[in-house]
Every structure is written in structure tokens, then in C-alpha cells.
Design brief:
Layout lengths: L1 H14 L8 E4 L2 E7 L6 H5 L5 H6 L13 E5 L2 E7 L6 E3 L12 E7 L9 E2 L5 E4 L3 E6 L4 E5 L31 E6 L3 E7 L4 H11 L13 E4 L6 H13 L6 E4 L22 H10 L3 E6 L10 H4 L3 E6 L2 E4 L4 H14 L7 E4 L22 H22 L6 E3 L11 E3 L6 H11 L5 E2 L9 H12 L4 E4 L14 H13 L1 H14 L4 E3 L11 E4 L12 E4 L5 E3 L3 E3 L9 E12 L5 E10 L8 E4 L3 E4 L13 E7 L5 E8 L11 E11 L2 E6 L10 E10 L3
Parallel strand pairs: 6-7, 13-14, 13-22, 14-15, 15-18, 18-19, 19-20, 20-21, 32-36
Antiparallel strand pairs: 1-2, 2-12, 3-4, 4-11, 5-8, 6-10, 8-9, 9-12, 10-11, 16-17, 23-26, 24-25, 26-27, 27-30, 28-29, 28-30, 31-32, 33-34, 34-35
The structure holds beta-D-galactopyranose.
Length: about 725
């Protein structure tokens, strides 16, 4: 009896002491440890992705990146306490989809699914508990809870690297309210968690491992990379067909149209059934759009209306609380998913609907289900909040996969494990500069983001926003409330059309960049911090004592958060309304102006004064950019197009041009081509050549009709 009591006391006591955990290499360069007793539901379990093993095996070998003895794991009080070491120069990226900051070192975040509220505090559309270090490794905490991360803010008494002790009274100005911290500390409010460490050696390699571990990035259908217009909420099928015709009249690209809430017979909550007045003939509607080469994407939020035929069926499978009077279905239950599947296949997908925009699964606390809600599966409301968007992505993705049709849509809530889902995140926040910072940050956490355009105060803002969105994962105008059209500002209509056409011309490049995301895990739109040769040091400034506004003399950090890479070779530097000139930081290696081929700089910051018609774009020395002639719609299966390959700079170079049928998943079974485009020096002159596509594999370009343009004279 005594012995048992002793054991219990010891178990309780020992459990609260830091423990050495066991690290197991689960995939090449990816290690996992288990802390405490993990819960049944986790982020990765909800996403259910399978590692892309072939891609992982291609990456350079990686060593365990941290000193194991410096990682501390403690389980106490039903929670997990983690500590990871940090070096002095380390920068930390990721930790959710942030809109204003890139380096998260020195910040505290509670990662909580929510609509972004204007502050980088962890409440966001993709509160992914993953960080990437500039030292070339990544850390993921797999638990579907509101995890708090102290990213280099906390200082332990027993730290090996204590901050310098400075007297604030001596006015030396050296005192800081944020003394040096040598660790990331994490509080997971759960009985256990699985912890993953992703090796490098570079930060890009760690991100690649993360994406590949989650199945590799999603390869959108080609039409998904064309232009998309979302129409006003109450447009009828006749209005929408007219809209598609207007696009044709204006010779403006259009591959898919987004149908906003008015297609439901009732919305907020939703029926997921067509409104008989506005859409008397849904099949006829989809068919006439398709006859114009245009697909339809349907808006929804998940809350089931009492007026839907789904309502009585899913009622017993739904949570204790409603949202806007609608049921919150428990998607962890297979029966619930099956009911949705039947309803959606019958009413939309079988008619040819190409995908969904899944709205409002992120939050606002005041209308969402509260954390005191209960669900029939026993899943906690907090867990539900963290994974709801991911469950919706997974379920809808599966429906399309079963049909061997690729989809591409929008979602407002995502999380860890979502790299291989066909969705792009968006929101209502609408700050153009912050949208670009979000685009940069999306690259650290395995999600896609679109800086969508809605309305603008001026023609200048309009064209600047349009330029950015055409250099993002989804080129979208969302006119649900304002009824805007790409030509809403006639004075810039041709500039807007030019940039949309430029995107269409760049589709061979962009599609190959997405193939890289899929097969190699490299984010298609990515931070400069993931780019070789980039060495920008953020400046700290301010910190002046002000008793009412800055009593702790907090400093501000000026980060580079307004330029990014599209693939390996194109640097994009958007311009915001009101900006006449801007700085562009060019990494090491020579860079050239995309439009003229002129040398732009090398390992330097340049000042540029772009015309209203152009978004500044720079290309790496030796890069090859494959393009097709301007067209309104993405290439269709079987199309064979001429190519223009542009070469920039003076160095030889090569490019792997990827192609497949653009619509199905046959590429996953090998039905794709990778053709090498190459420029070599031939007797002092640059000369281009095109490899041969493998017989019987889809390749939509005419190898005999290739024009080589040497841009740099
Ligand atoms: C918002 C969404 C908008 C639009 C609107 C329709 O929540 O962010 O893009 O879809 O709902 O009611």
C-alpha cells in the first residue's frame, strides 16, 4: 500500500519535472517527439495528409538542428510546457498568418483561429503553430488548442545566456524593456502534444520539409490560375451570364466566376440549395457558363439553415450552439460528412460546379460558437474552432479527388497540415500593404493567400491593387458588395488589362512554379528570407521614453515586408497608392528589369520610380521565363501552344518546364512532362534549346515553335 502511494507521489512529482523526450526520425530530416498524452484530435490528424516521400528523399541530408539537451519538455497541471534554445542572431518566421510583422522574435502570440483583427497577436485565419528559424530548421507543435508562444521574450533565472544587467537610472540609453532571451517557450493547454522538428540546412529546406511532410503543395488546375471575378451577392443567373459576356466584350481574362450568397434559397444560415427565383435552371446556368469557357465557384458558410433539407438530417450530428440560427455540424463524424457529400454532389458538383469559397469558418467570437459549446463527438469547442476550416478543406477536396477533377477555391480558416489542400485564404481586412505582408508570411506556414481586390478610392489605388493580385496565388476581383469590374476606372482600364494579360502570358512559368510547390515543397509566392543571397538587416528605431505613449521605451523594427519572390526567378515589388518611388532590395547575384532586360543591381537597395502601368519586377541572372501569347483563358487539355522563352542577364541557365492535362489528378500517377529549357554559351553567343517531351505524356507546347528572346542587350 505504502509502495503504491509512494509511486503515485513520485509519478505526480516526476511528471512536473522537465523530461528528456525521445526524438524519432519519422521522415528524412524530420524528427518527432511525444510530450505527455496527446489528445485524440490534433491539427495534423484533422488534416490527415500523407508525407510526399519521394520529394523528401530528394532534399539534402539534415542533422538534428538543435542540442537535444537544451530542449525542455514538462507536463504539469494538465498542460505541456516547452522550451527550445535560440541563438543570438536568430530570426523566427511563421507562427500564424501575420499581416504586419515578419520576424516573430520578441513577440508573444496566442495562436487562436479568428478573423484578423488588425494586430499580430496570434488571432488570425491560419494560426499555424509552426516557426522557421533563419538558422535553417523548423518547429511544429501539433495540438488543436490555443497555444501561446513566447518567441524569444522570456528569461529564466537559470539561463546559460543571461541578458546584460543595465541600470535604467544611469540614462545610458542601453536599457531595454526587452532584455535578451535565449529561448522560445511554449504553453500548450492540453495533456500532451506531438512535436516535430524539421531540419534544413537552410530555412527554405525546413519549409520544403514541412510542406512535403503535409503531402506537398497543391497543384491548382490551370483554370484556377486564370482571372476570377466574384459577382454581387444578389446577381441572378442571367446577370452572371451577362457579366461573363461583358468580360469578353472588354477582352478581359476570365476563367471562373464566384457566385456569392444569393445563389442559396436562404443565406446566413445557408441552405446549400439554389434559389428558384434567381437561379431557375442551375444546370443550364453552369452549362452556359461552361460554353463560354467559364467555371462557377459557389460561396457558402457552413451554418445549416432550418430551411435546408439537410437540417433535420444533420441536427443530431451538430453542436449545442447555433451560428445565425444555423447548425454547426460536427464534421469529425463520418455520418455528418457523408450527408454533406450527398447533398453537395447532387446539388452542385454533379452539375459542374468547380469549387467553393468557404467563408466564416474562422470566427469573430461574438457570433461564432463559444468555447463552452459541446459537440456530439465529444470534441471540445476550442479544438473545433482550430480545425473547422481544415476539416472543410479536407472533406471537399476528397469529393473532387474522387471525381478525378481538380478544384481551386477560397477559405477563411486554415491551419497546420493544409499545404496539399486546394484553397487560398482571403479576408475582409483590406489593407493593401498588409495584404502583401500576409502573402510573404503565407510562405512560411504552408498556406496560400490572395490580396484580393474589392473597391478603391482612386484609379491609382485600383491599378496598384490589381497589379499585386495578378502576382499572387489567385488573381481575383471580389465585387460581392461593390459591383466593381476590372474596367471600373476607365482611365486605367488598359493598364489593368495589361497586367491581367501579363499573368496569362506567364502561366507556363507560374504553373511550373506551382509544380515545384507540389513536388519539391517550395512555396510559389515566398518571402525574401527564403531566397539565397538575401541579407537584409532590419533596423530598430525609436524607443524614446514617453510616459503616456511609450513608458517602457519600446523600439520599433523596420522590416522588409513589401517585396517577395514568385518562384525562384521573379522578384515582385508592388507599389501602393500614393507611393511615387520605392526601394527594392536585390539579393546577391545580378538582377535585371523584367520589362527591359536592363541590369538593375546586385546585392543592393535601389530606388525605383515605376510608371502607373507597371509593377516593378526583377529577374535573376541567367533565368529563363517561359511565356505564351496573350489569351483570355488558361490553356485547355489538348491545346498545343507556341512558346516565347525570355532569357535575362549574361549567364547561361535552365528551367524545368512542367506540364500535364491541367485538370485531373493523372499527374499523380506520372502523366506529366518536365522539359528542360536551356541557354548555353555557344562561341561567345547565348543559344537556347528545348528538350523533348516524353512520348505519350501531356505537353501543351509546340517544341518546334519556340521563340528565344534575349532580353539583356
Ligand atoms: C464575407 C466575405 C466576403 C463576401 C461576403 C458575402 O464574409 O469575406 O468576401 O463573400 O461575406 O456575404
Amino acid at each position: 500500500m505504502k509502495a503504491i502511494r509512494l509511486t503515485i507521489v513520485c509519478l505526480l512529482f516526476c511528471a512536473s519535472l522537465p523530461a528528456q523526450v525521445q526524438w524519432t526520425e519519422v521522415q528524412p530530416g524530420i524528427w518527432k517527439a511525444v510530450a505527455g498524452t496527446p489528445e485524440k484530435i490534433s491539427l495534423l490528424k484533422a488534416a490527415g495528409a500523407k508525407p510526399a516521400v519521394a520529394g523528401l528523399q530528394q532534399l539534402p541530408a539534415a542533422k538534428f538542428p538543435l542540442s537535444k539537451g537544451d530542449i525542455s519538455v514538462r507536463v504539469a497541471d494538465g498542460k505541456v510546457y516547452l522550451r527550445f534554445p535560440l541563438e543570438r542572431e536568430e530570426q523566427l518566421f511563421g507562427l500564424g498568418l501575420n499581416f504586419q510583422t515578419i520576424n516573430q522574435r520578441g513577440r508573444v502570440s496566442t495562436l487562436h483561429m479568428d478573423h484578423y483583427g488588425g494586430k499580430d497577436d496570434g488571432r488570425t485565419h491560419a494560426p499555424v503553430p509552426f516557426y522557421v528559424s533563419s538558422r535553417g530548421y523548423g518547429v511544429l507543435i501539433d495540438a488543436a488548442r490555443y497555444i501561446t508562444v513566447y518567441a524569444g521574450t522570456a528569461v529564466r533565472v537559470d539561463t546559460k545566456n543571461p541578458p546584460e544587467l543595465i541600470d535604467r537610472n544611469d540614462k545610458s540609453k542601453k536599457w531595454s524593456s526587452m532584455p535578451y532571451s535565449d529561448a522560445v517557450e511554449i504553453l500548450v493547454p492540453a495533456s500532451g502534444a506531438e512535436i516535430y522538428i524539421f531540419g534544413g540546412p537552410t530555412a527554405m529546406n525546413a519549409v520544403q520539409r514541412y510542406n512535403l511532410f503535409n503531402g506537398g503543395g497543391y497543384l491548382p488546375p490551370k483554370w484556377g490560375l486564370g482571372f476570377t471575378q466574384r459577382v454581387p451577392t444578389l446577381y441572378s443567373q442571367t446577370d452572371i451570364i451577362r457579366e461573363a459576356d461583358e468580360f469578353e466584350k472588354h477582352q478581359f481574362p476570365l476563367d471562373f466566376i464566384g457566385v456569392e450568397p444569393g445563389w442559396h434559397s436562404m443565406a446566413y444560415p445557408c441552405t446549400f440549395e439554389w434559389d428558384g427565383q434567381r437561379f431557375p435552371n442551375p444546370k443550364g446556368f453552369i452549362d452556359s457558363l461552361m460554353a463560354r469557357g467559364v467555371r462557377a465557384n459557389l460561396w457558402l458558410n457552413p451554418y445549416v439553415s432550418p430551411k435546408s433539407s439537410l437540417y433535420p438530417k444533420v441536427k443530431p450530428l451538430s453542436g449545442s450552439h447555433t451560428v445565425w440560427n444555423g447548425l454547426v455540424t460536427d464534421f469529425t463524424l463520418p455520418q455528418a460528412r457523408q450527408l454533406f457529400k450527398e447533398h453537395f454532389l447532387k446539388n452542385h458538383i454533379s452539375l459542374g460546379v468547380s469549387g467553393y469559397k468557404m467563408d466564416e469558418n474562422d470566427g469573430y467570437d461574438k457570433w461564432l460558437w463559444p468555447d463552452v459549446a459541446t459537440f456530439p463527438s465529444g470534441t471540445a469547442a476550442e479544438q473545433m474552432r482550430q480545425i473547422y476550416g481544415v476539416m472543410m478543406q479536407k472533406m471537399t477536396d476528397e469529393w473532387y479527388r474522387e471525381q478525378n477533377r481538380r478544384t481551386y477555391g477560397l477559405v477563411r480558416a486554415s491551419n497546420a497540415g493544409a499545404s496539399n489542400f486546394p484553397y487560398v485564404i482571403y479576408n475582409d481586412y483590406y489593407s493593401h500593404p498588409d495584404f502583401i505582408t500576409a502573402l510573404i508570411n503565407s510562405s512560411f506556414i504552408g498556406v496560400l493567400w490572395t490580396p484580393e481586390v474589392r473597391a478603391s478610392k482612386s484609379a491609382e489605388e485600383w491599378v496598384r491593387r490589381m497589379q499585386s493580385v495578378c502576382f499572387s496565388p489567385m488573381a481575383m476581383l471580389n465585387a460581392w458588395a461593390d459591383g466593381t469590374k476590372p474596367w471600373s476606372f476607365p482611365e486605367v482600364e488598359s493598364a489593368v488589362q495589361d497586367v491581367a494579360m501579363l499573368r496569362m502570358r506567364l502561366l507556363p512559368y507560374i504553373y511550373s512554379v506551382f509544380a515545384q510547390y507540389h513536388f519539391e515543397g517550395k512555396p510559389p509566392f515566398r518571402s525574401m528570407n527564403l531566397t539565397d543571397g538575401f541579407a537584409y538587416t532590419a533596423q530598430e528605431s525609436g524607443g524614446k521614453l514617453d510616459a503616456t505613449h511609450n513608458p517602457y521605451e519600446a523600439k520599433t523594427r523596420s522590416e522588409l515586408k513589401d517585396q517577395y519572390m514568385m518562384g525562384d526567378d521573379i522578384l515582385v515589388a508592388p507599389v501602393f497608392a500614393g507611393q511615387k518611388t520605392r526601394k527594392v532590395y536585390l539579393p546577391a547575384g545580378k538582377w535585371y528589369d523584367f520589362y527591359t532586360g536592363a541590369f538593375a543591381g546586385e546585392n543592393t537597395a535601389i530606388d525605383v520610380t515605376p510608371s502607373l502601368e507597371r509593377i516593378p519586377l526583377y529577374v535573376r541572372d541567367g533565368a529563363l521565363i517561359p511565356m505564351i501569347p496573350a489569351r483570355r483563358q488558361a490553356p485547355k487539355p489538348g491545346d498545343v501552344l507556341p512558346l516565347e522563352v525570355r532569357h535575362y542577364g549574361t549567364a547561361p541557365g535552365s528551367f524545368t518546364l512542367y506540364d500535364d492535362d491541367g485538370v485531373s489528378f493523372d499527374f499523380e500517377k506520372g502523366a506529366y512532362s518536365q522539359v528542360k529549357l536551356e541557354v548555353k554559351k555557344d562561341g561567345g553567343k547565348l543559344k537556347g534549346s528545348v528538350g523533348k517531351a516524353q512520348a505519350g505524356k501531356p505537353f501543351g507546347y509546340d517544341g518546334k515553335n519556340v521563340t528565344w528572346t534575349f532580353m539583356t542587350k
